């Protein structure tokens, strides 16, 4: 299995490893994350989440793991649409999990949605535990992509399924050029206006640009053991839904 190490970091001037920097970045932007996420994607991210979750409907998972759960949006949508008995969300940012926990308590879902600190390379769960594992906009932040995906594969039960939603790079004119301008010029500018961490919204387009998307990412999924993999580009290739099963 080839090692896929992601070297793009939020704070180029700092010496900490990527995982530490990403955790710090999300701690900083957690108060405004939900607003900016929807605003900067024009709300299309909500549609992408619904489509990704719909791909698990036939499986009817009862115990789910949401990796890089952030403020919990993907897990809340999964609870509503799939009605599993329980979802556990893990994230490396305590700031994001604090926001998620507030939402859980506000919606009185403590018995169905639990969050804890953790990352995909060192998931604190037994092998073959979960019916489904989801990741929404989180895999490009993995320090070691192969190790993170292998961790997800390990905790899935045989017959289980992983669904990954991630930004990708549009390939066709003029969307490629328009998206490039938006992500490099508009997005960081708006991000700086609303967030106290200006580096976060410069890191975002950089991390998308270098991410091994499409068929390249599918090959990495297959290399760690996933089968019946699918690659489903969304909205002119701005985002992609990936699926993989464990036999």
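^ structure tokens above, recovered residues below v
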């Amino acid at each position: 299995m080839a090692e896929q190490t992601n070297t793009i970091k939020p704070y180029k001037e700092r010496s900490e490893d990527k995982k530490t920097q990403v955790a710090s970045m999300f701690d900083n932007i957690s108060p405004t994350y939900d607003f900016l996420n929807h605003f900067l994607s024009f709300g299309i991210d909500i549609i992408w989440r619904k489509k990704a979750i719909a791909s698990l409907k036939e499986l009817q998972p009862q115990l789910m793991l949401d990796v890089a759960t952030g403020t919990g949006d993907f897990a809340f949508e999964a609870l509503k649409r799939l009605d599993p008995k329980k979802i556990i969300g893990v994230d490396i940012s305590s700031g994001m999990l604090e926001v998620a926990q507030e939402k859980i308590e506000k919606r009185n879902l403590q018995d169905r949605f639990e969050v804890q600190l953790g990352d995909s390379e060192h998931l604190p769960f037994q092998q073959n535990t979960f019916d489904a594992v989801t990741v929404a906009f989180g895999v490009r932040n993995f320090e070691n992509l192969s190790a993170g995906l292998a961790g997800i594969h390990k905790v899935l039960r045989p017959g289980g399924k992983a669904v990954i939603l991630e930004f990708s790079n549009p390939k066709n004119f003029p969307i490629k050029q328009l998206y490039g301008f938006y992500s490099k010029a508009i997005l960081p500018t708006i991000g700086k206006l609303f967030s106290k961490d200006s580096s976060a919204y410069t890191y975002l387009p950089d991390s998308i640009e270098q991410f091994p998307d499409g068929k390249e990412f599918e090959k990495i999924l297959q290399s760690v053991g996933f089968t019946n993999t699918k690659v489903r580009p969304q909205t002119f290739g701005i985002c992609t839904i990936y699926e993989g099963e464990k036999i």
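Residues 78 and 205 are 27 Å apart (CA to CA).
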